[in-house]
Amino acid sequence: MTDEPGTADSTESEAEEFEAESRWLSWKEAGGERAAEASAEADLARDAGFDEPFRSAGSAKQWAAEAGRSLLDIQFRRPATRTLLPLAYVLGAVTFGIGLPIAFVVLMWKVSAVLGVLAVLVAAPLGLTVVAAVRLMLEFADNTARLAGRVEHIGDLADGLFQALSDVAEPVNQLSEDVRAVQFWRFRKKK
Question: What residues does each domain of the chain span?
Fold first, then answer.
């Protein structure tokens, strides 16, 4: 048989080449889909049931049980950031957003009535500012926790990519050694 283009042998080798390439692409796509599904499942499992923990008595009880388990997890085996955010927000808003302005007004009334009246005028904006600051700090903590999860996911993807590249590098190195072993293409010095 001849090795001219369009013959049976060349089409069979091209078909094998395309088949190998399609297997590689399907493996790559399947790996990417598995990683995306695992990341989505981890996000859903972490956030499940805690979108609105105070919507009903059942969800509040479930949230309270999960928050208690998170607080008692002294070995930090599971992240508690998303679970404890509502509790931290309520406590921060009540303690600092309401308690601080009331204490400020009471202290100013003890000093003088005029300062007490001024403190009453300043108390509402002060309380709102403190509640906003608490909210922003907790959102920062939440976003930091989510970013840490994304970085972990990127690390897993990098490990998979490194493994795939290692799998490709071995055959390429073998081909390189085989090509170097072939001597017919090297020019020899004439004597």
Answer: 14-48, 83-169
